[in-house]
Specification:
Layout: E1 3-8, H1 15-29, E2 32-37, H2 43-52, E3 58-64, H3 66-76, E4 82-88, H4 108-112, E5 115-126, E6 132-134, E7 137-141, H5 142-150, H6 163-175, E8 179-185, E9 188-189, E10 192-200, E11 222-228, H7 232-243, E12 254-259, E13 261-274, E14 277-297
Parallel strand pairs: 1-2, 1-3, 3-4, 4-14
Antiparallel strand pairs: 5-6, 5-14, 7-10, 7-13, 8-9, 8-10, 8-13, 10-11, 11-12, 13-14
């Protein structure tokens, strides 16, 4: 019998209510199920890994945001008997925008009866450490710097939820955001000075930035965006267009390359972003994984390939 695991991020106000509703559905249908709450960063990895080590089919429903989804995927570690989905209760919920947004994903019964589709995974190898999985968008450059800095400005939430991001952006721009990187895409050397290097499996990140609206997490390739070094004035002028997904109209500063792998190196450590998590590195590779993610979608939701 398939087991149904609901992992709750307690920082989400809606998650406990939706978890209770999901458990009630499972009880009514006579399904084996469990609800567990993650108490600290990384515990979702441990919870899913522990349950995935048992025999039998496992369906994991993450009640949280993109970070919680990433942890669940990392916990499953490519196990073929584990399927994963998200009941979006986080701040951004960016990955499921590939499927049109929250509709259906907020209805536990729709997901419990949902179908599974195979999606691409990314392998993230940082400074030679064992690879970890990512699902949505990875990057290096100004956006990774901003993501890393948001935590230092959480005190500013008293003036609005966007204020920590805005302060981190200003700080990154003042400090300097362009760097010289060694860059290799599918064996092609593209060393240069860049403002941002993005690897897209999904379409949206950062709470609404439509980096690559044409990305399809089921098409067997990744989309790389190489953004040239630009002045602060130019950055201020084009950031809105980039957020709106108009990269095709910005060929003077953005190079788009479909591919399988990108390696980024720096003389000094730089911040790396993978699904919203950040870490310092000197060398990182974002690559298409040979493994697939069994992703659960409601029956009424179209897949990215057939929208």
């Amino acid at each position: 019998m398939t087991r149904h695991l609901f992992v709750v991020n307690p920082l989400s106000r809606e998650a406990p209510r939706l978890a209770a509703a999901a458990a009630a559905v499972c009880a009514r249908l006579g399904l084996e199920h469990m609800v567990q709450t993650s108490g600290y960063a990384g515990e979702t990895i441990e919870i899913v890994s522990r349950e995935a080590s048992r025999d039998g089919e496992l369906r994991v429903y993450v009640l949280g945001g993109d970070g919680s989804l990433n942890e669940a995927v990392r916990g499953a570690d490519g196990a073929g008997h584990v399927a994963i989905t998200q009941i979006p209760c986080g701040t951004g919920n960016d990955f499921i925008r590939c499927f049109g947004g929250k509709d259906g994903f907020l209805e536990p019964e729709e997901l419990i009866h949902g179908r599974e589709i195979p999606l691409d995974l990314m392998e993230v190898t940082i400074d030679g450490l064992p690879p970890r999985f990512a699902v949505n968008i990875c990057s290096a450059g100004v956006d990774a710097d901003v993501a890393a800095g948001v935590r230092r400005h959480t005190w500013a939430r008293r003036w609005g939820s966007k204020m920590p991001y805005n302060l981190s952006l200003v700080s990154a721009v003042v400090r300097g955001y362009t760097r010289r990187y060694g860059v290799t895409v599918d064996g092609q050397c593209l060393d240069g000075t860049y403002s941002l290097l993005a690897c897209c499996n999904g379409q949206v990140y950062g709470g609404g930035f439509k980096a690559c609206p044409d990305a399809d997490p089921a098409d067997g390739q990744l989309e790389f965006l190489l953004i040239k070094a630009v002045s602060r004035l130019t950055l201020a002028r084009v950031v809105g267009d980039y957020a709106a997904g108009k990269y095709k109209e910005m060929t003077d500063i953005i190079r788009h390359i479909p591919g399988k792998s990108i390696t980024i190196e720096g003389k000094k450590p730089f911040f790396v972003n993978y699904d919203g998590e950040t870490i310092r590195a000197r060398r990182v590779t974002f690559a298409l994984s040979g493994q697939k993610l069994r992703f659960i979608v409601p029956e009424k939701v179209l897949t990215p390939s057939i929208r």
